[in-house]
């Protein structure tokens, strides 16, 4: 986690860095800091709290200089505090380091450095790095960084500056994301593209072990063996507006409203003249598919919930069992992955540490790896055999919304094409599903256009401590996402249950007024859901149902109903999740919380 930005150019470095960090706060936001190098020396400022605390301090008391590094933190080692914030520095405060990742052997390095007489100020793993750079520095910063990283185990993206090298910045990555940006007479490094969009669209994606050396106006990249590397420049095509709030009060609201467009882009830009889906970036052929006898979908968080729906689609269309698992569990389980396995990894960021680890383990076992991700050039995208990009546009809010719906649509598209290729579905059904999927953007839009009811419901649950989400089949997978959304942005304790399971224990928790969001979009399970709603109504629950428009009968058992447009049962989740996203957003807003940056969370989880 954590975000880093480095700059060397002609502008005020602090301004560029703070602006860049503001686009990376999704990576962590419990403290922020900066080091600026100028003729006057190396100045370091860092504070616990949001980036705004640092920005205010700089506003009051300007930091001069054209070279600097900055950091926004999500604590792993050591609580959020001024001292534990980055940059960390050596004894004489001549070397400053920002770090994203975890140094696994920091304890032994710390002991070694302490034996050399080094005093440690923070509880972080990172602090060993500036001391090591100091130990190896003999007038050549690049050389000192190389020698330092040889000693490190774990994951890192590092930015290093030194008072005695006032026109140099060195950055290096291993298992944590890092890009370099090239401007006119200025160069940058950052954890992610949005940090640089205001200044440049020309970036390099760095591979593991690569080192960036910026000296004056020159930027060079070397591999781990110190050989120069020629890389292709990647031109970023998204507009700056796509990474800013565009009139909404927060990114989550904006991103919820961008779903019709995201779904449309993901689907329709891939349809050929005959209306069929072109999976151009997936190179798997019929013979590859035939070889596969096990399919796994592995992911974390919301992406895992999308994977649960992908499983339903693959099983229904391809007629084969599919195992969906959480990456942090899967990587340590006996998972039977082999060369006849297809492992589908779903990840918005393409950087989630556990998902990436599953990719590498499964690849080593000979499995075919298919990534479904939103971030072009991310580690998962680069290391997979095949990639399918969700075209949701940048997702900034920590709570994932548009990535989820586009992930579901992507997984359905993949399942449909594989099934057609394999001959397990007929062409008529394939075309019927595509036609139905084409109506999704309009369906989602109609929900977005009618939010009054959802706002009313939010008022009714804003003061509750607990909420339950019920569903059966596909709707159960959806209930998990609904409950995650509510808990992460509103802090209401929320749980999802398979509706039939509730009476095996949890129903004991239902009391007068407990909100129970009941998703009933599946025709064949509708009556069963109605019975489950009756069971909780009888215990005093406040029941909110989400149902297809034609199922008006639900009004008899629910206190409030949110209707979604009629659709194919398989596709209704893409619409039914939207009222739950909006509900979570409204409850969070009514509670006066920071919707985009919920406490203790970060968007990109690049640690285990
Ligand atoms: C974090 C985010 C979630 C996200 C999960 C997986 O926990 O807060 O919104 O679903 O990571 O992230 P990924 O980028 O792999 O989809």
From TrEMBL:
Gene Ontology cellular component terms for the protein in this record: cytosol
Keyword Kinase included in the entry's annotation: no
Source superkingdom: Bacteria
Its EC number(s): 2.6.1.16
Keywords: Aminotransferase, Cytoplasm, Glutamine amidotransferase, Repeat, Transferase
Pfam families on file: GATase_6, SIS
Top EC class, one word: transferase
Reaction catalysis annotation: D-fructose 6-phosphate + L-glutamine = D-glucosamine 6-phosphate + L-glutamate
SUPFAM superfamilies: N-terminal nucleophile aminohydrolases (Ntn hydrolases) (SSF56235), SIS domain (SSF53697)
Biological process annotations from GO: carbohydrate metabolic process; fructose 6-phosphate metabolic process; protein N-linked glycosylation; UDP-N-acetylglucosamine metabolic process
Cellular localisation: Cytoplasm
InterPro entries: GATase_2_dom (IPR017932), GFAT (IPR005855), GFAT_N (IPR047084), GlmS/AgaS_SIS (IPR035466), GlmS/FrlB_SIS (IPR035490), Ntn_hydrolases_N (IPR029055), SIS_dom (IPR001347), SIS_dom_sf (IPR046348)
Stretches that traverse the bilayer: none
Occurrences of domain SIS (ranges): 285-424, 457-598
Record-annotated active site: 2 (nucleophile), 603 (for fru-6p isomerization activity)
Any GO molecular function: glutamine-fructose-6-phosphate transaminase (isomerizing) activity
Glutamine amidotransferase type-2 domain residues: 2-217
Role noted for this protein: Catalyzes the first step in hexosamine metabolism, converting fructose-6P into glucosamine-6P using glutamine as a nitrogen source.
Annotated HAMAP family: GlmS
UniProt subunit comment: Homodimer.
The protein's name: Glutamine--fructose-6-phosphate aminotransferase [isomerizing]
Organism: Peptacetobacter hominis
